Amino acid sequence: MPYGRKITPKPIPPHLTVQALVDDYFTAYNAARLREACHILTQKVFQPEVTVALTITGALTPTGMGYSAVVPLIENGLVDWIISTGANLYHDIHFSLGFELFNTTPNTDDLALREQHIIRIYDILFDQRVLLESDAFLRRVMVAPEFQRRMGTAEMHYLLGKYVRAAEDELGVAHRSILSAAYAHGVPIYTSSPGDSTLGMNVAALRLDGNALQMDVELDVNETAAIVYEAKASGGRSAVIILGGGSPKNFALQTEPQIQEILGLPEAGHDYFVQFTDARPDTGGLSGATPSEAMTWGKIDPEQLPNSVVCYVDSTVAFPIAVAYALSLGAKRPLKRLYDRREALLARLTEAYQQHKSMDA
């Protein structure tokens, strides 16, 4: 094929499968990039030797995508660690606590909503009581003895996941949150900006009451670098799946500069990069930065750029299609349970760093 893949138009039949839709009808432009992303995910990323990070930005969990798209990946061993905005983790537990969110038109009277104590996220509505009672749940949980110390966000989210899962079971709700699923399957969840969400706001409020919970962001930087270092040093590969962009995107990708530039350890960069975004690259923002640009920072292995793709498609459109495509092909892997191995991984990174320093001394 001297020019690439031949485009052969044919009518869309009834009862079309997701696999056939992607493979046979996503022929060009961002449809073709989504097809390419599906192929990279299923043929390369979701392989046993690859350690897979998922980053989550944008108001995705209020749409239900936490349970519908992220949790199936966790349960099938297809995501090994997560970096999420605190907002996505927070809004996901509304469903766990039995609260209702509603889809509506974005053309609403916001002043009338405000007067009725109704919260709007574009075309999603819910009562302010949902926030207040979710906050109350979090504050009841985070005064428990196991929270009374300084810890990384992975540990904080793991402990929260235990309580959220217990609430789901007690209430009998037909929902598993990202926190709950990650707790059960040993998937560590980090938040790159822990104070920038209602989760962080509640931690801050409890500090005013003398609560001892503090979030250790330096530990998060080192633990995430340790996960990537182990993936590569053990002969495996590292992949990053990016929903949106923002701070979680950089926090996942900066693991490689942390290893190479800051710690001085030999490494080449992440192997696979798949992003779903609406951010343009020409504004210079991190969200729109391409894999090629990330390569100049050491974030992406130059040899692996062909295994990187950016789909300029809303995550709420593209990601469910990609997940459905992978699951329809039977994608499944053994759990890596990285949460349980955090201390050992950090010890290995620390040893490598200290050895490098002694050689340079």
UniProtKB/TrEMBL annotation:
List UniProt keywords, sorted A-Z: Transferase
GO terms for cellular component: cytoplasm
The record's listing under SUPFAM superfamilies reads:
DHS-like NAD/FAD-binding domain
Q: Mind telling me which Gene3D superfamilies this protein's record contains?
A: Deoxyhypusine synthase (3.40.910.10)
Q: Is Transferase one of the keywords?
A: yes
Q: Name one GO molecular function term.
A: deoxyhypusine synthase activity
Instruction: Give the UniProt family note.
Output: Belongs to the deoxyhypusine synthase family.
Query: What is the designated name of this protein?
Result: Deoxyhypusine synthase
Lineage of the organism:
Bacteria, Bacillati, Chloroflexota, Candidatus Thermofontia, Candidatus Thermofonsia Clade 1
